[in-house]
What we know:
Layout: H1 6-29, H2 31-35, E1 48-54, E2 97-103, H3 104-115, E3 129-139, H4 149-163, E4 182-191, E5 194-202, H5 209-229, E6 232-240, E7 244-247, H6 249-254, H7 263-277, E8 284-291, H8 300-312, E9 319-324, H9 333-340, E10 347-352, H10 358-366
Parallel strand pairs: 5-6, 5-8, 8-9, 9-10
Antiparallel strand pairs: 1-2, 3-4, 6-7
Helix pairs in contact: 3-5, 5-10, 7-8
Amino acid sequence: MMTSPPRLAGKIETDRHRFIEIVRGRIKRDLRKYISNPEILGRRGKNFVAVPVPQIELPHFCYGSGRCKGLGHGDGQVGDPLPGRNNGAGNAAAEHTLEVDITIRDLAEILGEELELPRIKPRGMKNVATERSRYASIRRVGPQALCDFRRTFKQALRRQIIAGEYDYDDPVVVPTPQDRRFRSWKVEIAPHAGAVIIYMMDVSGSMGDEQKEIVRTTAFWIDAWLKSQYSNVQRRFIIHDAEAHIVDEHSFYHTRETGGTMISSAYRLCDNLIMHHYPPSEWNIYPFHFSDGDNWEGQDTDLCVSILRTSLLPKVNQFCYGQVESRYGSGDFIDAMRDAFEGDVRIANSEISEPADIPNVIREFLGKGR
């Protein structure tokens, strides 16, 4: 197998890291544009996201003959039009873009840097340290099953060359017991933090496709950040109109009902889900509720406040309510939430009028480090 010379391999690796840093810089510079663009959701895989960035050209010198005059040569005054420029149709190509695969974890790191999100300090028994073995070194003794044949062969070859025993015409390498090398492991202590994200959304008639697309985009970035903070993350989905139901992710974003709206039904179901499956002593719990702020005009809003204050908030790391603007929603619910929980760090309220608001919403939701 042919390998690159050491100097060439080192140069390639240096150029690769330089390219990666340039790409990270481009993504960070335009991050707010990516956050508010739902198209990125169609480019994600299990661990990677294909991010479109402008075509990158490294700076280089262009040499001319020196015999012809160009810009910067000859007579001219400030404000004179440049030669060869007009406002007609052109034949030049537009700026090209290329798609660069970046891990969701790296994307979350860029998100944290750009929005200045603090690291989360997990809580609960799910944060107990676990032992993990990793092969990280080489030893001269060990079980045969861990023998590293490549390193053993290289050691035998090196020994024969130094001793003058290697025959280039008859290249036979015979390892001795002293040449054998074995992989060795070390035990690492790694925290095992578990978190559950519970998404709740109003699917009554006043929540249209535009509002749901905003919720979906916001949830993608919430997922990316929380998954970078916890080793084990589960996601649950609740939809509601006058009644609440636990559904899968596809149904969460594609269900529409024609009934009324009783937000308390979702809060009750969320509390019941936590009680039976996610004890607060073991899990870090993050409920996110999205609605257009339209609720039944009876006592349901007061009931929501009561459920939050007496049951949900004591159990969760933080409760987040995002109100998505809709031409049909009254928008009154967020005012009641702010009045009832003013100054309470366990709850975050935010209004989303358009996709451009999503970066600020992410910062309000995740900027407390809870």
